[in-house]
Each structure stands twice: as C-alpha cells, then as structure tokens.
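ok trying this again, last paste got cut off
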Amino acid sequence: MLVHDTVATGRPVAETDQIRQSLQARYDELSAEYEQAVLQSQVLRLVEVGDTAGDDQADSGTKTAERDTAQSLLRTILDRRAQYERALARLAEGTYGWCEGCSAAIPVERLEIFPSATSCVTCKQTRERRAA
C-alpha cells in the first residue's frame, strides 16, 4: 500500500473520507436541529411575554416546565453536536477509532452504533463503575 493511500490510523483514505462525510452529515443535521429548536424556544418566549394576563399558578407552572424542557433540548443537542465535532477533530488528528483510555481499537460495531465514541466498552464500563 502506498504511503499516501493511508492516514495516520492505517485506514485507507477512502474509508477515512467516508467516515468524515458521515460524521459531518450528522453534525450538520444536529446544527439544523439546534437552529430549529432555538427558533421554537424564541416563539415560546414571545408567547409567554404576550400571554400572561390571567395566569394562575398552574399556568405559570406549565410555562416554566415548557421553558425548562426547551432549554434541556437545546443543551442536549449542543452536547451531541460537540461529540461529533470532537470525533471530526480526532479523525483529522488520526486518533479516531482508538480508545482514549487504553489506546486499543474501538470495535467497528461500536463506532457504527455510536460514531462519536472515544473509548472502548471496557474503559467506558470502568469509568461508569468509578462514577457510581
């Protein structure tokens, strides 16, 4: 195999390009989802500001719950988008697909299910046990 046909991970350039396109497509989807959620959140705020007359505690509580749910959705989308951004950076560095904990290859099946994975199952389980 020619040197210029592989990247630092030993992956063929075509495979790396396919991974990059897949990660970038999901990142772009999350960005669009985020923009849509921001617009919905802004509409919700405008409705709240213009429609507070006659609100009782139940109405106020419902509006607060809706606002909290919208904010939670925004945080979740941003977190997922950051994971894909990190995966793209790792791909560019040549470290994508390798565990940050033990440097072992992350199984392809895990990356197919969770493309932004940065650790193998064993390291992930160890980290979760320590956190519990």
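PB: full thing came through this time. The helical segments are 13-50, 57-93, 108-113, 121-131.
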